Structure formats: structure tokens, C-alpha cells
Amino acid sequence: MDLIRHSCSACLSAFKKINPSSKCSGIFAMLRFGVILWILLITARGTSCEVTIRRNTVVSWADELGRRLYNLSRTYSGSDVVHEQYSNEQNIEIVPVDGVELVRDMAHQMETMLQDKAKAVERIVQAAEEGFLNHDYDNATEFTYYNAILINSNATTSPDLEKDIRKDLDVTPDSHFENIPINTSIAAIQVPTNVYNQGTEVLNSIEATELLDTTYRENYQNDPTLTWQFFGSRTGYFRLYPGYKWIPPQENLDLYDCRVRGWYVEGATSPKDVVILVDMSGSMTGLYVEIAKYAIKKILDTFGDNDFVNVISFNETTKFIQPCFNDTMVQATSDNKNLIKDALTRTVPKLEPYGMADLSRAVRYAFNLLNDFNSTNRGSECNQAIMIISDMLTETAEDVFKELNPNQTTRVFTYQTGREVDGPTNLIKVACDNRGYYTRLATISDVEEHVTSYLHVLSRPMVNKRLRKTVWSSVYWDALGLGLTCSVSQPVFNVKNETMDKGILEGVAGCDVPIKELKKFTPPFKLGVNGYSFAVTNNGYILFHPELRYLHTDGSVKPNYNSVDLSEVELSDTDDVDIQPRSSQLVTPMELRNSLVDRDTGGVTMEIKYMFDEMKRVSIRRSKYYFTFLFETPYSLGISLPEAYASKHLKTPATFDMESSGNYSSADVCEIQQAARLLFGDGTLGTTIIANWLYCKINYSSSERYEGEEHVARFLEDAAKRGGKLSPTCDTVMVNHLIFDANVTRFMPDYWKLVYGEALPSTVDTTMFTTLSTNESDSDAISSIQDILAQIDDYCSPGGQGYTTATPHNKTEDSEDGEVMTTEDSGTHPTEAPNMRYTTSLFGTTEDVPYVEFPYLDPIRDGVVLSFLGTYGGLTRIYHNPNMYYPFSDFSNKEEQSTIEEDYFRRPVDEINEGFIYSVPFDSELEYSFDPLVTASTAIRATKDGSSFVTAAAGYQFLESALQDLFFNITRQHDEEDCGYDCTPSCFNDSVDCFLIDNHGYIVVSKDQSQVGSHFASHSQNIRLFDKLINDDIFKEVKVVDYQGMCGRDIIVSAAPTLHNTLSNILSMFTWLANQFTVFLSHISVYDWLVSTLSPVDALAERVWYEPCDLEYSFYVANKSDNFVGGQLYGYFQTFCDDCIKSFGVQPVPYSNLLLVIQDRDCTCEPRDSVQLDPIEVEYNETAWCQKLRQFKTRRRPDTCFNYDKKEDSSECGRGFATQPSTILILTALVLTAWWRHH
To answer: Where does the sequence pass through the membrane (predicted)?
Structure first.
């Protein structure tokens, strides 16, 4: 306002000088004065002239900040020292990677492991079949067993009717089983609530498989990498090893039925195309239609990715339940099955049961649908079936079946709903005439128990032919706690001669293979920085992939996590961000997917968008993809290697050299001693962490599990004991690279000690900075190898027989003792690089160690918490500031560090050519009450013969407030009182906002610390400026569609229990009763009583439920230039809410991913439009949505099919339930009814 004030004064002075005698002149002068004043006042609304942001000033600020920050980062991280050490290594070689050979080698190792698991299952199958062969059925058996749900539990009723199967079992947490308490001596038996746990048939089957426990134990002893081994019986029980206390999702209500799990269904049957016909004639009302709907849902649960299905309602006409699936069969994926289930809930209530059931019309329609679909060659081309669900049939459609199914190649299964005893004749005849099966579903509980009866009919041809198949499942979430898992299973036959033609399937045996075990054969070390592995099934669905997001934000498993297509996660680049001109050599995600499905071996190139860091950042890169198939499995394996830097590998000097025999590698025991000292030291100089990678595939006993440092310590100890011979199960290249890294970076702890200085008296309890891990077993392993080292000290000490003066890998022609070069400033960087000079001792040996003078450093002033270094070989070194305590560092709390998989390693390689990447936790104010931490890191590249390789990443963590102080103090170049309207005010001025934002738009420094970690455009006062940065090409918008999204839906539901939940709770009360009691309940109208006695609940609750959807994300990435990220922009722009003019300046900070932003704070208003930050749902119209669902993608059918055997005995084709209640059961029911009413 000074300009206005001065202008007004000048005008008034001029007005006073006007000659009063000249009225005309005076009038014109007054008018002129008024116009000038009006213009100045209008201008004053939009211009705060004291806020002038001058380009030269902002440029100098950014340059000064970049120079000082770069120097601090180089010094505290020690990046120059690390770079110098790697550059001085003479015996390294950068070699190209043969991607096809690499993926083949990984696939071969994976195949070996998977076949070992398949052989373990074969042994379980043989033992089970032998058990059934030798077992004599006993109608009066009183066999007892460890009931998994009753283990270590107390009786809740008296008398305790389950006392014989309620047993105590000693269980111990096991890290191999994610610390689940287990017992490796026996198996436990899980029985679902709908199966009587002391039924005669169940007890006989459990007794027949008793000897499986011995086979389980032997398998586990032979292969300690095994996890759950199991046998699922056709009677419903589940024999699981190791023994485990089963905890159902709901107290005393266990609905887990192994017979509807994918591994059981696929092991029991071959692929199938099934049309389900549900009667909607006039008699299908009330409970009948509810049972039918529930039965369809449970039948759908038994279908897998290799099956095809559709559901049609019929009376006098036919109608598809899901309109999107009209006139076709659809693959039984999770998505498709859920859509049909949803349609059952939404569509069926709208269908008024009416008229007669025209079975002939419906059956003809079903056959035509199956035949038309078969002509497309898209179906299973194996089993075909029609399922009919009705309360009764008035005809058998015999003529239609004779015409369209003369050889009974299509089986027909019939289900009768309700309690009526009349009317099953036609349903039975239809099933028996067409090699099918009739099932009576009198109540909801019958559905749970008998809906899987069709599976054992479909299995007859396989059982009769005694042709066994090995089935590998798609990925699924382990209900017991092992996370994502796949499984291998095989059917178990009844091999008694007297049952030969009956084709009796006793169950399915199998074992789980955790996905994390598969991924161990594709270690990050071999894939390189930002490389990754993935695998798909024969249907193109992901088995594992880093972009498979299987958990919802609330921790629940997404409903469609196991049917995510590869083309939905490998997202190709478009014109949104142009890396390089598109080339005809590039392929699409669908082409890549089809190559894997077709079991090709080869390589392609593709440009992709890759979301990371909690889906808040995006990277765009060109990558090479290599792929092959896994022998005797439906899986294909692929790897992705960034084209720019992951197509080469660093060949390091060898500590362990391959012997001439080629059978094993060996090293001098003194070199092993030296390597161990470099890796583990004495713990006084910082923390050392070794990545949990599979350096050696050593099968320790089940009681010994080693990871990370412990794992490395054990195999080095083993090598020392064997006279230097490394176990042949070790990956020599990985071991040598780890030791090489330990040697090259051995000076870093001493260097950081010099940087930080000694601990000040009584400042921080340094015991919190532990060496290695706090795990006791780690400490034991380290102590053990140190004992071994001590035993050979005399041998390797000066004067000893094995003494050598050289440290590993430093024997060169120019240096016998590995002298280290000093770091000198090259002249291309700021000139405050440290000078290194003196000698000290390290781990008991005398070597030249860098010495640095740091006259300008003050770690406390600079807010430095720790320094770190991660190497390509998997070694992490951490050094804590002894005078700074900060409990929330990732490096302090994270037990594992995977170096090249960590963001601090990955981002510098991708995002900056020279300098450091700076980042803060997202939404820092929500995470901690402490000062947020800034993480700075840079990539260390070794250069050899004109080729470079990323060998390490170095960095440090420091307080955000320290960075703010550094930044703001640099802007304090003028006395605030002397700063006129033509100078740029400092960041201490209330009239301006100052920010440092990163190359993705997230705030690193702000005056308001609560904004740190949030997006710049998430604050209304910044939206217009950020929008201008987008329009002026400083930031580029990148749109990505997430095909794994979950969208919330607002629904209003009654607080009353649902029918299913209510009946399930009733079932939980009757666990100790036989299944016949449930049938009895239907005869005394328990359903009607239940509905009438439940208290009405008028209150309706609003809830949000989530369903799969497609979400569009918008990311903003700063454009790249040669030495930094981002462009520069200065000036003003007009706002339209109050006509003010907003001034601003944006300048990249050299040698960083940061942009300095300063803007006028006084000119604020609400923006007209906000920048898209939150994902938005992709809306489809009905036609587009249905087309998306019906899209056919290339798939490969399973290799085996068993659908017919001419010797099959199909006489057993029906089962009804007409159990008559006894007086005792009636009395018991009445007592329980009275109890229920009063509780």
C-alpha cells in the first residue's frame, strides 16, 4: 500500500498548486485526480505491490539451497567415499544379462521345488489309499481324535458330549508358519458345523487315515520347507498337519468346508460346462425359492476358473438371471460368480412365480446353449452338465433327452427343494436316466451338506480308470494365516476290488505352497533395481505380481483377488507421458499375456506405467520382458527388467572359487574369517543388516529356521568347518557379491563416526542402536560364527600358517594392501567436499581409512538422525547419530532391509541422473507427533569400460524442521523493514508462502508443518497455481486406470439377523446332534417359528459395502531435464474471485528432485475447479459394462480330462431325506425352543 499512499500524496500536492482563479482548470484537475485515484484503488484490490517475486532472487535462493543441501547430503551419506571405493576396484566387470537364460534358470529351480511338493502329495495319497484298503467299516466305532476346534478348550455343557474328542495339545509358535502355534507330532481334524463330528461314517474315515500322521512327519523331515499338508474327506472332515488350534471366524460356528475349496473341487473333477435351471413356477414360493437361491450360490462356489456356467430361470418361458450373460456361457471367475449371485438377490425377488414349469422347453434351451457354446471352442470341452432345481416336476422331458442326449454325455443333476415328500419321482428319473444324481434339499442346512454330491459323480470316470492327475490351484488366501498361497493336490481313490465299478472318491490330498516360497527363486539380486518377477496361470490370471493388490484398505481380502488378469496390472504407456517415440518393436500388455498363456519362451519390450509408494506416485519406463513356462504345471513365469539399466550385471571378484571338479566352490578359511568380520564385526560401529534373500538353499531341520544375518552366518560357519568348502546349495555369485560389498564399504562405519563425532555426555542411551537384529536366534548365530573365527585366529594371525596381509579382493598390481584413494573435488560440483587423510583400525586389522575434516558440520543443528548405505548385494549399513534420538525411522523399526527393493534405492535410479532424491512420509501430521523425517538418497554407479552399473545407494535421514531452517535462512537476505515494494520478501514474511515440493507434487517443506507429506494441490490456496504449472508444462498429468479398485456403495439394511445367519446360529447350538436332527427341525416348522419369534427391528442402519470397480487415478510428474526435475516459471496470473493479481515463482533446486515455490499469500480465493487427486470411478453404461464382462481372452485348457468311462456304474443316482423324528429329539427340541425364547 506504500505505492498507493505515495501516489495519493503526490496527487494532493499537485491539486493544491492549481490556480484558484481558474475554475474550469480546477474542475478538470479534480476530475483528473478522481480518475487517477479510482484507477489506483482498483489496482490496489489486486496488487500487493510490496510482494514482488523477482526471478533473479528466487534463482539465487534455489541455487544456494541446492549447493548447500547437496554438500550436506554428500557428506552425511558418504556417497563420495562409497563411489570412490567402488571406482577403485580393478577386478570388476560389467556384463550383459541374457534375460531368456535368466528366466529359464529361475523356472528350473522353481520346477524342482514344485515337483518336490507334488511327490510329497503322492506319498500322502498312497498312504491314504492303503489306509482305506485295510480298514474294515465298523458301525459301532468309538474312535477318538484331536478335534481342531476343541483342542485346549473347556466344556460348555454338562454332560460333555464331546469329551472324547476334546483334548489338550502342546502347541508352539513357529516362524515358518508365521508364528502360528503348531504341533509337528500329530495332525488335527477340523469338522465343519454342518457335519456331525462323531458320526459313524466320519469316525470310520478318520480312523482309516490315522496313519497319515506318520507320512506327514516323514515328508516334513525330508523337506522342512513344506507348510500345511492335508487330506479333505468326502465326508466333510479335514485332516491338517501340523496340529493346530482351529479358530473359526465366529465363536463355535465353523463354516469352513474343505469340499467346496478350489483345491478339492479341481482335484476331484475335470473342467465342466454347467447350465443351472431354476424353477420359477407358481409353486416355488417362500422357503422353496430361498433354498433354491442359496443352493445356486453354494453350487457356484464349487466352480473354478476352468469351468463355465450360466443360470436360467424357467416356468412357461426361460430367462437368464444375469442379463449381461444372455445367450452365452461365462467363465466361473470370482467376478462373474459374484455378479450372478448379486442378480439372484436383485432379480429373483422381481420374478413372480407363476404358471407351470415347462421342463421340455427349458432343457432344450439348455442343450442348445451348451452346443452353441461348444462350437466357439472356448469352453472346457470336457464335462457337460445340466442342473435342475425345483420343488417338483410334472414331466420328465424324456423325448427331449432322447433326442439331444442319446448317449448321456451330458449329465443331469436334480435338486428338490422343500419338505414335501410327494413329487420326487420325476426328479429322480431325470437324474438317473442321464448319469446324474438326485439330491433332496429340505432345509438350508441340507444345502451346506449335500450340494457337493455332484462332484463325486463327475469323478467316477477318473476313479474307475485309476488315472490320477496332479492339480495346481490358482492363488488363494490361506485361511490359516500363511497369506497368499497356491496348492498342489491329487485325488484319493477307494481301491477295494468290490467297489471298482462304483468309482468312489474318498477325498483329495494336498499341500500348500506359500507364494513367498516361490518368489525366493527370483531374488531381487538377479532381477536388478526396479526389476520384478511375476507368474500367471493357464487362464492368464496372476499367481504373483508386485502389483497384485489383494487386500482392501480395511485388511479384508478382495472378492476377486484370484482372478486378476495380467493385462489389468501391466499397464502400457500412452501419449500421457512421452518417454521415447513409440516403436513397432513394442508390444501391448495383451500380447505379453497371450505369450505366457501359450507357454512361449522368449522376450519382448513394452513401455509401462507403474504405480508405487502407496499408489501415490507413478513411474514410466521401458522394460524388457522375458518369459517361459513351468514344466508339469499350468503356470508361466515372467520377469521384467528396465531396459535402461537392468540389462547388465556386475561380475565381482570371487572369494569362493569353483573347484576344478566343478562340484563345489571353496575359499581359504582365512578369507572366510575376514569376510565374516567384515559382515558382522563387533557391533560398536553402527548396524549391519543382510537382506533376507536365498543365498543358500540349505534344508535345515524343522526346528532351525535362519534368515538374513543368521542365514549368512550359518552357511559361512558351515564353510569354515568344511575347510573352506561352500555348500553346493549356495548361489556362489550372490555370496561373492555380498562379501565384495562388505569389503568395499568396510570404511563407512569409521567414516560416519568421524562425521558425527563422539556422543556427548548424558544425551542419548545408545543401547537402542542395536547391531544386526534384536532376535535372540540371530545373536546366537553370530556368536556361533565368532566362536569359529576365534578358533582359527592363531592360524590366520600374523606369523600364523595362513596369514595374509591382503583384504579380500584388494590384491592388485598397484597395491598389495588395498590402499584407498582419497576423494578430490572434480570441479563440477560445489567445492566443500571433504579431505580424507588418516589411518585407524577396523575390526582388528590395520588399514588406510578415509579421514575427513568437517569444519562446517553440526549434526545436531542439521537435524541428522542417521546415515545409511544399501548395496546391490544385499548389505545395509546404518549409523545413528549418537546425540539424536528419533524412534520413528524406517531404519530403526524395520527388521528387514532389502536394499534394491527399497524406495530409497529404486527412486534415484529412475528419477534423477545426478544428485539426491528427497522424500517425507505421506500426511506426516497424521502419522507422528514428532518432527517428520526427510530421507535423502542417491544412487552409486560404478563405471567400467564405458558402461555403468548401480552398485549401491547411500543417504541419510534428518528432521524436516532442519531443512526448513536451512531453506528459510537462505531467503533472509534483506532486513524486513528495508524491503520495499520492488524486492522479494523472505520466507519469514507473512505475505508470502514458501514451499519445497518434490517431483510428484508432494510438500517436503512448508510454513505449516501439518501440510508436510500432503499434495501441494490438496490445499485450496495452491490449486490455481498448480493448475498453471500443469498448463505451462512444468508438471505433466498421467492418468492410470486401476482395474483392481473397490468402490463403496451406501446401502440401508435391517438390523435384524438374516435368514442364513439365524439358521447358522441355530446350527451352532446343535453341533453335538447328528444331521438327521436338522431334517427333523424342518418337519416341526422351525423356520416359521424362527421368523415369527424373532423380535422385529424397525431401525434401519446405513452401511457402506464395497464391490470391485475400475478407478481412474491422476498423477502429476515434473518434466525431466538434464540435471534436475522440473522447469522454471515466474510471473503473475489473474484470479477471478476478487480480481486480485497473484505473483509467484517456481524454480528447480539443483541436484535434487525438489522445486522451490514461492507465492503471494494475500491474494487468495476459492478455486473454481479442483485438481483431481482422489481416484474417480470409471462409469460404464449398461451396454459397455456387459461388453466388458463378455470379453473373451485367450486361455489354455488343462491338459487332462476325465468325462466318460463305459464301465461306470451309475445305479447310485439319488438320495432323499425322510428321517423320522424320535420322541427324544422332539423333547430336546422343545427344551431348546423354550431356552431360545428366554435368552
So the answer is: none
